[in-house]
Amino acid sequence: MLVLSRKVNQSIMVGDNVRVVVVAVDRDQVKLGIEAPREIAVHRSEIYEEIQRSNRSAAAAGATPAEKSAAVAPAALQPRKKSPKPVKNR
Amino acid sequence: METTMESPATMTIQTSRFGEVTFADTDVFEFPWGLPGFADQHRFLALSLAEQPNFVWLQAVDDPKVALPAADPWSIFPDYEPRMPAYATEALDLRSAEDFTILCVVVVTKEAEEMTMNLMAPIVVNLKSRRARQVMLENSPYSVRTPLPRKQAEVQGTAQPA
After folding, report:
1. I want to staple B68 with a disulfide (CB 3.0 to 4.6 A). Which of A48, A58, A60, B138 is the partner?
2. What pTM was computed for the model?
3. Does residue B159 have a pLDDT over 50?
């Protein structure tokens, strides 16, 4: 891991377009500002890890007997705003 | 399986949960950013089972073992109002409500006694481009583990742990 020392109001660049600024330091808490392009997702790691765990438990659920012998077909997903009538999308 | 006049190329994969699944190229949803926990999976099918009309299974095309149950959040929580962060709007090119839908991942506990829905990180699907991304609604009032009302849980029947 790369470790850099920075003072308040100093920043680091990650790649060409992500800037991380140290906004404030108060005892063991650091406030960071992140300037990144709009399409970049910025999250606290704990939240991302929680979603990872949740997805893994979702995928770990055991199959029901019905699923094992089920007739499966690609679903026709409906846009949110339209009435939920089934439509054939192909 | 229905056939079409100008049938797109079809493929068949062997899945661990559902056995053989046949689908067309055009049935695949691209997840360019992967799915948290399954970052290497970039292509999913949304499968429906006749027995589980309220659920959709997101089956990874490239890993037969990976399938997550999901559902339309509004069918259970009509007041659900996710506010899309800018990165999601940008990444998925969300312009019109007509073009997208949302699925939320459902977790069945080991004892199959409880089902929860992840309202905090909906999977947003652009139906036109067929690109999708799980979007984290940080600072929203929604929980990763929102209990499903009992009535809904019964729809799926009793899942047994593997």
Report:
1. A58
2. 0.81
3. no
